[in-house]
Give the backbone structure.
Amino acid sequence: MSDKSYWSVEDVAKRFGITATTVYRLAQRGVLPGFKIGGQWRFSPEMLESWVADQVTIEQFRTEEQTPPDKQPPEKNA
C-alpha cells in the first residue's frame, strides 16, 4: 500500500492563497483536479502542480497569440 498523501480543501486554499470556497467551486466545476472520498474533497499535490504548469503554459500561449507579429520577441536560434 502506498503512503501517498493528499491535500484537503484547506491545504489547497493555503497553498494557492485562495479561499476554501474558491477551492470548492473550482473542484465542483471540474476545473481543479480532485476527487471526493467520504463526501470530502481530496487533491493530489502532484496533479495540482501539473495543473498549475498547464495553466501557465496556456496563459503564455494566449499572450503570444494576442501579441501582434511586429511586437513579438525575436526567436532564439537553436
About this structure: The mean pLDDT is 84. The two ends are 45 Å apart (CA to CA). Strands lie at 35-37, 40-42. The helical segments are 9-16, 20-28, 45-66.
